[in-house]
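The records we work with from here on pair a chain with its fold. Here is one such record, which you should read through line by line:
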Amino acid sequence: MKIALVHDYLSQDGGAERVLESFHEIWPEAPIFVLFYDKKSLPQYKQADIRQSFIAHMPYGKVRYQWYLPWMPLATERHDLSEFDVVLSSTSAFAKGVITRPDTLHISYCHTPTRYLWTDTHTYISDLKYNRAIKAIL
């Protein structure tokens, strides 16, 4: 049985990342699919098979990742999980949106609703370091 782990992104060491770390301790051979991975912030994953989305390769994709918020659902859907029998996603935002085969078991550990999308939207967008054109799109 092939297992894959999926997480929104790895940029800080918080509670969700500790849950992912526990999953990875149980299934150390499972690759971890993320939007992007900041190796400096989370060196504990340096031996893991981390598979990043196209956002990781965009200009400032790992430091100004908020710029790519509109493309995060698409980037998540583009992870190739076709070879896996079980997908375990650890998420509060995008990871639960991965596309799997119809016969793949997808278990989503949802940490919390995405606060910046549901309750803190205006504050989140006003605090972003976007130019006015990008803020207008959001």
Notes: Residues 3-112 form one domain. The helical segments are 15-26, 72-77, 115-118, 121-127, 132-137.
